Amino acid sequence: MPKYEPLQRFLASQHADEVPMTFADIERVLGASLPHSAAAHRPWWANETRGHVHAKAWLNAGYETANVDMEGKRLVFRRIRLGVPDGGAAVAYPHGGMSDESREFKPAEIEGEKKPRRSPLWGCMKGTFTLVPPDPNEPPPEDPDSWEALCLAKFDRLLFGIGE
Question: Domain range holding 151?
Answer without folding.
Answer: 126-164
